[in-house]
């Protein structure tokens, strides 16, 4: 499903060269639910950006669904990203002027899916995430948990190979966080591959595997959380 081979990534921050990833190798299998953990600066966000085809490594190989995407140009990466990857962000990234249906439909705008089918898919997914009664509400009319449910529906609209969730509960209270994680676990049980970044042990516990990172490297790819 996802295979990273000796991935490196560095960049300049002021006068300093930062080695964000230093030879990272890892495989995520189909239908896995994997959580990445690590302190700030460990490289987990940089790795998430590469897995999401939002960035490219300096060296190494990245196979997404058996296709080497590490050295593709931006236009090709964009097409692959839209076809294979659904994103869930900590800050939701919803457009304020669009209602829930409009936000969920967005990833299909540049595909050959008709407007009618896009709307039908959006409605079905909003019902699936428990927002059948809020479909025509705009983000400012919703709670944080409801906005994250819209974001999850949007992540699913292109029927992605993998969902990448970057701190999906970071802006939510504890009760809503539990509800969102239950929804993600349910999606996983239905066959969805999920890769998540989190700094919270109780959120990582929902994954079936935890990968611990430190200083741009994988410290442990089967990390045991303290009970």
UniProtKB/TrEMBL annotation:
Keyword annotations for this protein, in alphabetical order, are: ATP-binding, Nucleotide-binding, Transport
One of the Pfam families matching this protein, by short name:
ABC_tran
Query: InterPro entries, per this entry?
Result: AAA+_ATPase, ABC_transporter-like_ATP-bd, ABC_transporter-like_CS, ABC_transpr_LolD-like, MacB-like_ATP-bd, P-loop_NTPase
An example molecular function term from Gene Ontology annotations: ATP hydrolysis activity
What is any one of the record's Gene Ontology cellular component terms? transmembrane transporter complex
Q: Which CDD domains match?
A: ABC_MJ0796_LolCDE_FtsE
Does the keyword Transcription regulation belong to this entry?
no
Query: Which stretches make up the ABC transporter domain?
Result: 2-226
Q: Electron transport as a keyword?
A: no
Q: Which residues form the signal peptide?
A: none
The family database entries (PANTHER family) matched by this protein are listed as:
ABC TRANSPORTER ABCH.1 (PTHR24220:SF86), IMPORT ATP-BINDING PROTEIN (PTHR24220)
- Indicate the family of this protein: Belongs to the ABC transporter superfamily. Macrolide exporter (TC 3.A.1.122) family.
The name this protein goes by in its record: ABC transporter ATP-binding protein
Q: Which organism is it from?
A: Neptunicella marina
């Amino acid at each position: 499903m996802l295979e990273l081979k000796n991935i490196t990534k560095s960049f300049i921050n002021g006068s300093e060269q930062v080695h964000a990833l230093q030879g990272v190798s890892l495989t995520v299998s189909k239908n896995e639910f994997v959580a990445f953990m690590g302190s700030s600066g460990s490289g987990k966000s940089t790795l998430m950006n590469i897995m999401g085809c939002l960035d490219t490594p300096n060296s190494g190989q990245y196979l997404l669904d058996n296709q080497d995407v590490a050295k593709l140009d931006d236009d090709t990466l964009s097409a692959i990203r839209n076809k294979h990857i659904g994103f869930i962000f900590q800050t939701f990234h919803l457009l304020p002027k669009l209602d829930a249906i409009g936000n969920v439909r967005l990833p299909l705008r540049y595909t050959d899916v008709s407007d009618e089918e896009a709307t039908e898919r959006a409605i079905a997914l909003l019902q699936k995430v428990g927002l059948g009664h809020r479909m025509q509400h705009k983000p400012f009319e919703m709670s944080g948990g409801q906005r994250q449910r819209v974001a999850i529906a949007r992540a699913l609209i292109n029927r992605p190979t993998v969902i990448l969730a970057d701190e999906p509960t970071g802006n939510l209270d504890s009760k809503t966080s539990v509800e969102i994680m239950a929804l993600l676990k349910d999606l996983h049980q239905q066959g969805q591959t999920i890769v998540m970044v989190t700094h919270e042990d109780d959120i990582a516990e929902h994954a079936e595997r935890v990968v611990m990172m430190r200083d741009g490297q994988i410290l442990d790819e089967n990390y045991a959380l303290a009970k």
